[in-house]
Each structure stands twice: as C-alpha cells, then as structure tokens.
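Meet the record:
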Amino acid sequence: MIRFLDRLILVAFALATAAATALVVALVGLVNQSFGDAFGALARLLGLTAIAATFDGRAEDVVAFVGQAAMTGLALWVGPIILVGVIGEAWGRRSWVFYAVGMALAFAAAPLATGMGLIGLAILYHAAAGLAAIGIAAGSVYWLIAGRSAGPAGVPALPRQPDARRT
C-alpha cells in the first residue's frame, strides 16, 4: 500500500512537471515567428477567436481568452500527458522512446480531438511539428522522473547480464 501511494505521488509530480515543461517549451516556441503564426492559425481554425486575436497582437476579451485558454490547455496540454503517462504506468513501460514518441504523437494529434480535421492539421504542419516537439520534451521529463521506474516493484529495469568474470 505504501509503494502504491509513493508511486501515485511520484506520478502526479511527474505529470505536473511534464505539463510545466510543455508550457515552457511552447512559450519558447511561440517566440519563433513562424510557429506563433501557425499556432494563431490553428486557434482560428479551431474557432478559438480570443486566442487567435492575442496571437495577432490584439487582446480584446480577456474573459473569453481565459476560458478558451483553459479549455485548450486541458485538451492540448494536460490530456496527452495524462493519456501517455497512465498507459505507460499501466503497461509498465520503462522505455524513453515510449514516452517521448508517445507524447509527441499525442500532442500532434490533440487538435484532432478538438474537432479539427486531418486536412487542417496538414495545412498547419508547423503547428503540428511544434506540438510534437513539445511532446518530446514533456515525455522526456516524465520518463526522467517516473517512467524509468514504471512497472511492478522488484523487477529490474533491464535484465541482468551474467558477469563473465565470475564464471
């Protein structure tokens, strides 16, 4: 029971840290003009007019912006991290590739969950590539904190190799 509670706290901390990492990487990416323009176009395509207006340099309705940002944050930031983190924990995956690639794919596909089609995502490939980069960073941080030790207790991360010197 104590191991489960310890693991639960570690996973919650890893999820929160991965979400913070995703936010930092996104903000750094938004400084890049082409990614900021692509993300603004993505917001317009999803009908998030207040967010799109902010990317265009004109913040009109702060309440609408906060509401749309909260909804988008849940769908695009927290959702993929929780999805891949919970699946990795349930399946006992310890591979960095699982978390990095899984979160990259989940982040890149997250706009599809908000109602945008594949054609819209293909048009805005800069935004999809940026979201995938955010996913790789978040997946790497999650793996460093909790993913490396996922799975049942007492099972080593890698199988032990026989020591040739002992034989």
